[in-house]
Each structure stands twice: as structure tokens, then as C-alpha cells.
Write a structure and sequence with these properties.
With 261 residues, the protein is mainly alpha-helical. 80% of the residues lie in helices and 0% in strands. The protein contains 12 helices and no strands. The longest helix is centred in the first third of the chain and has 24 residues. It is globular.
């Protein structure tokens, strides 16, 4: 029964995530901790594993809309952010494994609340324009710094980080929002692999290996959900859905991690 619930939750989160343009990891984390009762760090690692699979699915599905030939010209931008995000991901994963769970819960609570408010206020104001800085050196350094912060947050939460990468690409570099969504996946994937490689050497990772079946069911559910979400995209008003899910995330994050903090 637990595995069936794993499939269902993976499916629902990925479907909703696909509808609003997110991987859904921010919703998956409270479910893993609150409903399935995983220890916080174990839940973060499981979230990272599933998120890694979802990013791969999303990259494949989005390639039919925005091909890799459109992404390739932005190779330098990807490297720019990656320089920081890979370093940040290692730091974040390393830090998450060393601090006390109570403090980790407080950090996660704050980050999820920030994500909830970003969903409530939406990204509709983000439009393509000119890069924030004309000076290329300043622009490059800003990209690295932003990457470090994104990598740390993504590692601590076990998320892909698109919620932060996309606004960075639009505001800092003036990139088109749709293109930014695909470019962000190219940045997320190596960043997540870096955090995952650090987590894979921990005792907690050995513990969650006993939950292989649970993880596989959730990954399969996420695959189906990602596909269904892409099909429903044209039938659902994602703006109103984002507001609703922002409220749900805010309530669930507060309820789960406030009580454990």
C-alpha cells in the first residue's frame, strides 16, 4: 500500500508541477516528511533522486517545443551559472548533512515559505529585456554569485532550483521566459548530480537504499504525471492554479516543518 501511495503522490505532484512549469519538488518534500514520516534529511535525499528523474523527463518533453539547437547558443550562459551552482550544491549538501535536524527544519521552512510567496505573487512581471549589466565582467561575476546561492538552496531542499534559475536568467541576462525554462533544466541537471554525488556518500543514503521500491514507484508516478501535466497544459488556467498551490504550499510547509522545528 505504501508503494501505491508513493506512485499516486508522485503522479499528482508531477502533474501539478507540469501545469505550472515546476518540477514539484517543493510539494513533494512536505509529503515525504509529513505523510510518509521520513526523517528530514532522508526526505531531502529521496526528493533529490526523484527530482533528478523529473528534470530528465522535462528536458525530453520540452525538446519538442524548444529544441537543443535553440539552447546551444546560450552555452556560455549555462557555464556561467553552473560555475557557481555546482560549488553551491556541494556546499549545501555538505552543510545539510552536518547540522542538527531541528535547525535543518527551520531552514527548509523559511525556504519553502519564500517559494510559496514567489508562487503567490507569480512571475508574470518577468519579461525578456536587456541584461542587467552592460559590463561583461560584472555580469559574469553576478551570474556566478547567483549560481552559488541557487546551488545551495537546491541542495538543501532537494529541488531542481528552476524557481530561482528562471527569474535569474530573465532579470540578470534578459532571456526570454520560455527559453529560460529549458536553459534552466540544463543548469539544474549537473547541479543536482553534484548534490546527489555528495549525498550518495552519506550514511543517510545507505538508509534510503532500503526504500528502493518506494522510490521507483514515485519516479514512475512522476514520469506519468509529467506527461499528463503537459497534455492538460492547454486546458487549465495555470495562473489561478499557481495561486492555489502557493497557498497549499504555504500551509503544508508551515504545518509540517514548524511542528518539527
Amino acid at each position: 500500500m505504501k508503494n501505491m501511495y508513493s506512485f499516486i503522490s508522485g503522479f499528482l505532484v508531477a502533474t501539478l508541477g507540469g501545469l505550472i512549469g515546476l518540477g514539484g519538488a517543493e510539494f513533494r518534500l512536505p509529503i515525504l516528511v509529513g505523510f510518509f514520516s521520513f526523517a528530514t534529511l532522508n526526505a531531502v535525499i529521496i526528493n533529490k533522486v526523484v527530482s533528478l528523474a523529473v528534470v530528465l523527463f522535462s528536458l525530453i518533453f520540452r525538446s519538442h517545443t524548444i529544441g537543443f539547437e535553440e539552447i546551444l547558443p546560450h552555452f556560455f550562459t549555462i557555464i556561467n551559472i553552473l560555475i557557481g551552482s555546482l560549488f553551491g550544491a556541494y556546499i549545501g549538501a555538505n552543510y545539510a548533512m552536518k547540522i542538527k535536524q531541528e535547525f535543518l527544519n527551520k531552514i527548509i521552512l523559511v525556504l519553502l515559505v519564500v517559494l510559496a510567496f514567489s508562487m503567490l505573487f507569480g512571475h508574470n512581471y518577468l519579461v525578456a529585456g536587456n541584461p542587467l549589466f552592460e559590463n561583461q565582467i560584472l555580469l559574469f561575476v553576478s551570474g556566478v554569485i547567483a549560481g552559488v546561492l541557487i546551488g545551495i538552496i537546491a541542495a538543501v531542499l532537494g529541488v531542481a532550483g528552476g524557481e530561482f534559475i528562471i527569474p535569474t536568467l530573465i532579470l540578470l541576462l534578459g532571456m526570454d521566459p520560455k527559453l529560460a525554462g529549458s536553459v534552466s533544466l540544463c543548469i539544474s541537471l549537473p547541479t543536482m548530480i553534484m548534490a546527489f554525488s555528495r549525498y550518495s556518500r552519506s550514511e543517510q543514503f545507505k538508509q534510503i537504499m532500503s526504500e528502493k521500491k518506494f522510490i521507483i514507484y514515485m519516479v514512475v508516478g512522476s514520469f506519468v504525471g509529467t506527461f499528463v501535466g503537459s497534455l492538460l497544459l492547454s486546458y487549465v488556467n495555470s495562473q489561478y492554479l499557481t495561486l492555489l498551490l502557493g497557498c497549499i504550499l504555504l500551509i503544508s510547509a508551515w504545518k509540517v516543518f514548524k511542528s518539527k522545528g
